[in-house]
Amino acid sequence: MKDRILQFIRTKGPSLPTAIAKEMGIDSLFASAHLSELKEHGKIKISHLKVGGGSPLYYLAGQEDQLQKFAENLGEKEKKIYDLLLGKKVIRDSSLVPVFRAAIRTVKDFASPFQVKLNGKPELFWKWYQLSSDEASAIVRKMLGVKEEQKPKEKETVKPPASEQKKKETQKHLPAEPKPSKPQNEKKQILREPGSFYDELLSYFEKNKIRAIEEKIIRKTEAEFVVEVPSPVGNLHYFVKAKSKKKVNDGDLSSAFIQAQSRRLPVLFLSKGSLTKKAEEMMQTDFKGMKFSTL
Questions:
Q1: How many CB atoms lie within 10 A of CB 197?
Q2: Are the C-beta atoms of 269 and 291 separated by less than 8 Å?
Q3: What's the average model confidence in pLDDT over 249-274?
Q4: How many helices, marked H, and strands, marked E, lie in the chain?
Q5: CATH number assigned to the domain with residue range 187-294, chosen from the 4 options 3.40.50.300, 3.40.47.10, 3.30.479.10, 3.40.1350.10
Q6: Nearest to 111 by CA among 68, 141, 149, 152
Q7: CA neighbor of 113 nearest in space, from 227, 258, 254
Q8: Does domain 2-70 match CATH 1.10.10.10?
Q9: Strand pairing partners for 274?
Q10: Between vectors from CA 284 to CA 82 and to CA 48, what angle results, nearest 5°?
Q11: What is the pTM of this model?
């Protein structure tokens, strides 16, 4: 039966369980059981895309390109981001508005995430699933206006006269002039004032026995931390995003989630406000594991 199912998918391409059950002349429950077993053993793949009444497609490795035939079954926002990615091939995550930033995370059959280091910091990009890593890198370089590094031609070294060489060596061993000491960060001192958002964050950490390992104060109403949180199984590390907003939206959560992913840490989002309805929904679906707490 399993061999027959594999042959059917090989011939027909990505298929629904109901079509397989009909072809095999068996109940759909038995067909689903066989498909689950084949999936478990790595013989077939299952799509994230849902067709008809919400059923996924079963297909073989190498049939990924055939999934495009079912793209019309995507939701309105998902189909728009699908079309955009198909046309551009590479999309910078930060260039998307929050609603499309969320949508691209759901079209997993067609969008592959990858990171690029910009000014020493990782930034998230998405590539069309059939695009190679080299092709994606070339598009990103073009997008950012970065040229391929060319090796400089070797130049003949001309030795300076002996007297000049001696002068340079003498200068090399002279003690360097002391650098002027940097002034203290006055902005940070202001943020530490009692009653400030930063002070409220410190109070929250003290109350919950949370230890801040790293901190970055972006503005008076926004800060980021890496913290150590005590738990029954030992200390856990979290990336903390803190924003003093009345309403935290899905875009705020998306941004924090991406930053935490780059550090491979779970997220703790702190705010003085509450979540929007859309953000609450995404906490249950796209951002499972993220914790939200009100100060």
A1: 20
A2: yes
A3: 85
A4: 11, 12
A5: 3.40.1350.10
A6: 68
A7: 258
A8: yes
A9: 247
A10: 35
A11: 0.49
